[in-house]
Amino acid sequence: MSFRKKSVILIIFIFLITSAFSKDIPTGYRGITLGMSLDETKDALLRDASFGYHGDRDVSLIPGTNKILIETDANSGHGSIFLERCWFQFYDDELFIITININTQKMDYYSVFTKLTEKYGKPDTFSPQSATWKNENITMSLEKPLTLKYIDNDIFKNTQNYSNIEESPEEQTRDMFLDEL
What we know:
There is one protein chain. The chain has helices at residues 3-21, 38-47, 109-120, 153-161, 169-179; strands spanning 28-29, 32-33, 59-61, 67-73, 83-91, 94-102, 125-126, 130-134, 138-143, 147-152. By secondary structure, it is an alpha+beta fold. The termini are far apart. Mean pLDDT is 84; it is low at 10-22.
């Protein structure tokens, strides 16, 4: 086999391997994408009524951190009938988690799972409670009953290393219950 043929085969092989490990996962939903600044996200939310964003009153600072959270309520009658509450989490003015709760009265888990699988392939992990698609930069998860999350892997990992948020009393009670099982 000639050097040229070997080179072409090697290039094709490398392409197939890298494309298999680098899934094309979306970085957000409806024009809201991971990495946006707080102001960019607020502007995008104001332009898209689907989320039910009401302005700065939906924005809060998470105590003891440099994390900011926007919580929207599409159920309030001003958003999409397919959405409920949505959260947009920022760290150092960069959007790193988008959480979208989908209205279970209008949509079902199986329909969303099927569409995501058609578009992005088989999930990397699958359990009765969730399915996760992942590449080196982004994690997209579909969780029951019907929540879709987009996570910036690098920022998420960094925030976990520096987290100083204590568990809520409800989380502590839940853990105690689970420990007793």
